[in-house]
Amino acid sequence: MNLYHFFVENHEQVVELSLEHLWLVGISTLIAVLIGIPLGILSARRPVWNRPVLGTANIIQTIPSLALFGFLLPVPWIGERADRLAILALTLYALLPVIRNTYTGIRSVDPAVIEAGRGMGLTGRQLLLQVELPLALSVILSGIRVAVVISVGLATIAAAIGAGGLGEFIFRGLAMVNNQLILAGAIPAAVLALTADFGLGWLEKRLRPR
Question: Which among 50, 144, 152, 208 is least surrounded, fewest beta carbons within 10 Å?
Fold first, then answer.
């Protein structure tokens, strides 16, 4: 049986695992954005926080994925369900690009524009919401784009702890020494990553200030 016939005969399972994969990536990226953007703004507005925030995110990024899953297993409530554990791990890995690009985007806003806003009587909150964030949006979106692509790849490892996703095919194929099964998981994951990269890249260009 070739790969095409495998996809045809097992299309329901492929779709189901793809949706599980998207769920893990989508929820973890959303949480990373909700946490990472405020931390990036804090780092940009309060330089004293820059080193500890980015340093912690950098350290998390260096931890091997399987080791991080192992570290999180004993955590109460989180370790009780594989999907919770996988979402937390993917969120931690997605934080660095979101924080770093938010910080970079805010800091790269032209000081003259900020001074002009202050001269118009804008408060710090108004400057952030009406000037800095709109101008930094394309840079922030670039970080989210990187986070999504990273998460799509790392989510395949989540199958090792029973969290589902396309990694199920990959680990099953490794156990059976079956390249067809490995490709059945790897190809859809690559398609998801490329689609997300292309779509967010297009949106990033559309939002880039002219």
Answer: 208
